[in-house]
């Protein structure tokens, strides 16, 4: 998918919501546990209930790997379901990978070819040759961690490096990498005021924004500082939507929560 | 496994070699491709041929994920085979994971519980709460990237942060984390002179050292600067050993290569 197609989808749905599919078997409705593949059944119901309100789905691979082979199968079935039934929706493998060149190529193959995700998240610590193998895939997108939404973000990401914070150096340096037009960035919503600074460095890139909802960020603040003329934001919400209810009405309640966010986004987009 | 047990194994085998099981189907002997699970058959033969010369095996998860479900199954069979047949050998899931707290807990569960590895590699960028969930597992080890062996290491890891290089700040900061005694660190062999500086910060920790062999690092140089009185080094070699031959003699040739390294290590340990 191109960023142009993603932008068109945003305008059409009046939404830039990404739903995080971080499925924990201890948190999903009990009646699903009797099914053959509870994780997939849960995802399928959530997707069917929210696909017209969201422009992206983001399974976090940790939640699938934790269940071993069965989990990996659930992930495969989930991405196949989205790609077959809702091919216009942008898909993100939230994997935070990154390794030396030949190894990153294997990860890129895993997520872009074998699983056929539109994008994957990567970590920047190992630098250029750990990220460029992902960038080599045209019409696939590599979403690099810049400033994350957790407390530990302040351990290293905001350290002063040569007069600027490390995360700004990461953003700046990455612009010189081959095929950097395929980069997007993770920027946590808990630090809305940082978006103005970030937009000076990467005015045109899409930003994937976790931290709305359970982690406490404000949507309007993020949009105020982070939106560009292509919208340029994908705002993720996971727990607040997918665990809105633990009853048999979980999908319906998830839709209600997603609709609240979508309506707020529609309001912001119409300004 | 405790680090004490690892140290005893090193003394007994006169080796601190770690064999990297980075299995690429395009590089393994053709006759294996006709078997039901070529990756596992390859690993099994390599393990059977080298287990008395090596103290650790390190499958890189990328190489398994690239083959989807079948690859994950090969990884599971490989770790189970090592754990059952050679339970004294230290196992490393080279996964370079790291995410917000509840997600890192899921990764820790995947590698420490579901797959039962002794250790997993993690990336530091997201800071304390992305690593501590791994450290919570007693007698499991979390091997954090400090200074890697690739070219991109110089993009961010060696940036000057508050008067010192970022990787030194990473080492220093991590010592204050909860259960930091369960930390080991990745330090690339291509920069042997850096080991002296690193040992000032983490004198007692085990260091996992990639970059010997295909990446060009010198074993004697690394040992000169990096060894401590518990040895404190696990030196990884992957391609130079596992791809020593593409013929039916691949396991035998892998043993010959491993033996060369082990003999060099034996010489160093006897000094």
TrEMBL record, chains A, B:
The keyword Repeat does not apply. Transmembrane segments: none annotated. It comes from the Bacteria. SMART domains: OMPdecase. It is an enzyme of class 4 (lyase). Its EC number is 4.1.1.23. One of its GO terms (biological process) is 'de novo' UMP biosynthetic process. It catalyses: orotidine 5'-phosphate + H(+) = UMP + CO2. One of its GO terms (molecular function) is orotidine-5'-phosphate decarboxylase activity. Pathway: Pyrimidine metabolism; UMP biosynthesis via de novo pathway; UMP from orotate: step 2/2. Residues 16-254 form the Orotidine 5'-phosphate decarboxylase domain. Belongs to the OMP decarboxylase family. Type 2 subfamily. This is Orotidine-5'-phosphate decarboxylase. It comes from Flavobacterium hydrocarbonoxydans.
């Amino acid at each position: 998918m191109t960023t142009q197609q993603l932008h068109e989808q945003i305008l059409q749905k009046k939404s830039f919501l990404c739903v995080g599919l971080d499925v924990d078997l201890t948190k999903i409705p009990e009646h699903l546990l009797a099914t053959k593949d509870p994780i997939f059944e849960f995802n399928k119901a959530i997707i069917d209930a929210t696909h017209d309100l969201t422009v992206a789905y983001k399974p976090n691979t940790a939640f699938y790997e934790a269940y071993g082979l069965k989990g990996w199968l659930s992930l495969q079935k989930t991405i196949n379901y989205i790609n077959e039934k809702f091919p216009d929706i942008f898909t993100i493998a939230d994997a935070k990978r990154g390794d030396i060149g030949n190894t990153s190529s294997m990860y890129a193959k895993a997520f872009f070819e074998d699983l056929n995700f539109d994008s994957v998240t990567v970590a920047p610590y190992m630098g250029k040759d750990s990220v460029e193998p992902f960038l080599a895939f045209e019409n696939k997108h590599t979403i690099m961690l810049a400033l994350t939404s957790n407390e530990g973000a302040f351990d290293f990401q905001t350290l002063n490096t040569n007069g600027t914070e490390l995360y700004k150096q990461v953003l700046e340096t990455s612009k010189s990498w081959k095929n950097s037009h395929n980069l997007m960035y993770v920027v946590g919503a808990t630090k809305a005021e940082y978006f103005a600074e970030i937009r000076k460095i990467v005015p045109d890139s899409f930003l994937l924004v976790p931290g709305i909802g359970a982690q406490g960020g404000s949507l309007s603040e993020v949009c105020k500082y982070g939106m560009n003329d292509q919208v340029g934001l994908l705002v993720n919400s996971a727990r607040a939507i997918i665990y809105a209810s633990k009853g048999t009405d979980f999908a319906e309640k998830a839709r209600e929560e997603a609709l609240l966010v979508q309506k707020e986004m529609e309001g912001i987009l119409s300004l």
